[in-house]
Specification:
The complex is a heterodimer of chains A (448) and B (108). With 448 residues, chain A is α+β, with helices and mostly antiparallel strands. Chain A has 14 helices and 13 strands. Chain B is elongated and about 55 Å long. The chains are: A alpha+beta (448), B mainly alpha (108).
Chain lengths: 448, 108
């Protein structure tokens, strides 16, 4: 059955390739800027732009139920424990917006000519946007060449943003780094560039430019989540004992024994040390790194995941939510428990942090980090906080401190070859990796 | 003396200009890394049948010169089997990560 599915996927990929249109016949150039390219794209693809503008890759927001309430949530207003929020930092953050010119809150989300087609459809690998220009491509990009060579996206296109979010290669997700551009089988069996060579959209099935998949912090409702069972059977093992696990254990749990293969991921970001001229103790420049502009960061390779029950939905901390600074605030975490029949034990990366908060009002601060007056330049907490809070409209008491945070990131990529999947004793052995008590068991269920 | 200094500055500037004229551009560096691993590292590794190579083995100008002049003389068929586009991608990767580049890289 799996072989048939693989053949179908292969044929589908081939048919997609065979229908690729040589755009060099229609597009000439030169182009003054990216928006001029888009205008040419719109001559044939206006509907595609309209469809695209309804998706979170453009809106960075979606109506969804979070913590029992219907809210607008997306990157546009989310708060995380990396750079916190995008408000007042749009010039920098919109590097990863599939649009042009989002420099402040006045950006016109109804203007089709601002859609950036090239960031996803460049096939030359030369298209590039830097974090200092409101999502416009860098000057060295040869727009006419890129435009004449558009095609279906490959992993490298998606990775240009998804592998680099949070301030570096594989900083955020842990299971999405630049190594997935052209990975070897040992890194990911599906994306193995010399064999299966799945592109992102092989699993993240895309319709009308809406790319399926549910990132935990921004799709807390699990909308359009994807699953291994899109291709694999629900009980795929020849061994019945293994199939008995699938009701309670996600495929990823056994088949992704480690993440951050080849590229280290950031596991901790302590903002409280930022702004100092003296490097804090414990910094070695490799695992623990320090920069005055960002504070202390810990980067780790080949990380064993943490495990939690997950029913596909999440709870997310929203801007302005009150915190208890004496305990770590969970910025995003999976929902579900041992009594939830829809939940399975799932692997996660848990990123920890220390973030600036308003110590009278007890909520996190929406800091202004980018630009001449931003923290990265001035290292002045008071000044940057005031600008950031004014931009977000959150009252600032005038007093700040730092509070601990945690944030769960689901681990779905870097699926290992079958012979490297977890064995029985990896979880049920004397030194197994599961914390059974934390999962709600009295002890190892195999021994009960 | 002043004239000599001016001449020196002029010569240095000319050298930089010459380098930038030669510099490879338009290749896909990220794909080049993959192609370099698959096609070059099999021989050019520690203990391999050819001298170990990584991007930092040469400067940007040296990589440019290699691909412009010496690559044709590479033994075996590997250089002929690779397409022009693949060679440009490999060249771009090695150039972008060369010893004197802004982001040198040892791996590959």
């Amino acid at each position: 059955m799996n072989k048939i599915l693989l053949i179908v996927v292969g044929l589908l990929s081939l048919s997609l390739t065979s229908h690729a249109v040589d755009h060099s016949k229609f597009i000439k150039g030169p182009f003054a800027d990216g928006s001029e390219v888009t205008k040419v794209c719109l001559e044939c693809h206006e509907d595609e732009a309209t469809d695209f503008m309804l998706t979170p890759h453009w809106t960075w927001s979606r109506t969804q139920v979070v913590n029992g309430k219907e809210v607008q949530l997306g990157k546009i207003n989310a708060i995380n424990n990396y750079c916190s929020t995008i408000v007042s930092n749009e010039v920098h953050c919109s590097e990863c917006h599939a649009g042009y010119g989002w420099s402040d809150q006045s950006f016109d989300f109804s203007d089709k000519t601002r859609v950036d087609c090239l960031i996803c459809h460049d096939t030359t690998g030369t298209y590039h946007k830097d974090g200092d220009n409101s999502g416009w491509p860098t000057d060295h990009v040869k727009l006419a060449t890129v435009a004449r060579n558009v095609g279906m996206p490959v992993r490298q296109n998606c990775n240009s943003c998804h592998a680099l979010g949070g301030g570096g290669n594989n900083a955020k997700h842990g299971d999405i780094g630049l190594v997935l551009d052209y990975p070897e089988r040992s890194v990911d069996v599906h994306m193995d560039a010399d064999s299966n060579d799945f592109q992102c959209q092989t699993c993240h099935v895309t319709q009308n430019h809406y790319i399926s998949g549910a990132n935990l912090p921004t799709a807390a409702d699990g909308y359009k989540a994807i699953a291994c069972t899109q291709c694999h059977e629900a009980d795929p093992h020849a061994e019945s004992r293994l199939n008995a696990h699938v009701a309670k254990v996600a495929c990823q749990t056994c088949h992704i024994p480690v993440f951050a293969k080849e590229d280290a991921t950031q596991m901790d970001w302590d903002w409280s040390t930022a702004g100092r001229d003296i490097v804090p103790a414990g910094v070695d420049g490799k695992t623990v790194r320090y920069k005055k502009s960002v504070g202390t960061q810990t980067w780790v390779k080949n990380v064993e995941p943490s495990y939690a029950w997950f029913n596909g939905k999440a709870s997310v901390h929203l801007v302005g939510d009150i915190i208890d600074p004496t305990v770590p605030t969970k910025m995003a975490y999976p929902l579900g428990d041992i009594a939830d029949n829809t939940a399975k034990i799932h692997p996660f990366k848990i990123h920890t942090g220390k973030q600036v908060y308003d110590s009278k009002n007890n909520y996190f601060i929406t800091n202004h980090i980018y630009g001449d007056d931003g923290f990265w330049t001035t290292a002045d907490w008071e000044r940057s906080i005031k600008i950031g809070m004014e931009a977000s409209g959150l009252p600032y008491s005038g007093e700040y401190d730092f509070a601990q945070t945690t944030m769960h990131w689901r681990i779905d990529h870097m699926v290992a070859p079958a012979n490297e999947a977890l064995g029985c004793l990896d979880c049920h052995g004397d030194d197994g990796r599961m914390n059974w008590e934390a999962l709600g068991y009295k002890s190892d269920p195999m021994r009960m | 003396m002043k004239m000599k200094k001016l001449l020196m500055v002029g010569l240095i500037l000319m050298a930089f200009t010459a380098t930038s004229v030669l510099a490879v551009e338009g290749g896909n560096s990220r794909k080049g890394k993959h192609l370099f691993k698959n096609n070059c590292k099999s021989c050019h590794n520690a203990g391999g049948e050819a001298e170990e190579l990584n991007p930092m083995s040469k400067t940007m100008a040296q990589w440019d010169r290699y691909f412009k002049k010496k690559a044709k003389k590479h033994s075996g068929s590997v250089m002929k089997d690779l397409s022009k586009k693949d060679l440009k991608d490999i060249h771009q990767f090695l150039f972008d990560k060369a010893a004197d580049s802004p982001s040198p890289e040892t791996c590959g």
